[in-house]
Write a structure and sequence with these properties.
Elements: E1 2-3, E2 8-13, E3 20-27, H1 35-48, E4 59-70, E5 73-82, H2 90-97, H3 102-109
Antiparallel strand pairs: 1-2, 2-3, 3-5, 4-5
Length: 110
């Protein structure tokens, strides 16, 4: 789905529910992933996991110490599973297509 400063986001399937989730994968071997950052991730998860609102992304699960195996190679990672938001980011849409007219700007601002 994408990548950012500290994580790669991929679509995955929850084995228990068979639902699609957005899985943020943090490579713990990178120097920019500190214990403080992991504490902040855990705090963010704990503070938002019970939110249930149509305009807030739901956090579904968090594992800050697991192993990813890819091509026979093991790597320590932290994972956060969230509901997927399809369609891309609003910023990218505006950057590629230009400013919204007033009607659409009001809709997204609301």
């Amino acid at each position: 789905m994408g990548s950012g400063f500290s994580a790669v986001t991929k679509l995955a399937t929850d084995n228990e529910t068979a639902k699609t989730v957005a899985l943020n994968i943090f490579d713990l071997s990178k120097n920019d992933i500190t214990a403080n950052m992991l504490n902040l991730l855990n705090t963010e998860y704990e503070n938002t996991r019970n939110f249930n609102h149509p305009n807030i992304v739901r956090y579904l699960d968090c594992n800050l110490d697991t192993t990813e195996v890819k091509n026979g190679q093991e790597k320590k990672v932290a994972l956060i599973a969230m509901e997927p938001i399809m369609g891309g980011e609003l910023f990218d849409y505006v950057a590629n297509s230009g400013a919204f007219d007033a009607k659409y700007a009001r809709y997204y601002f609301k």
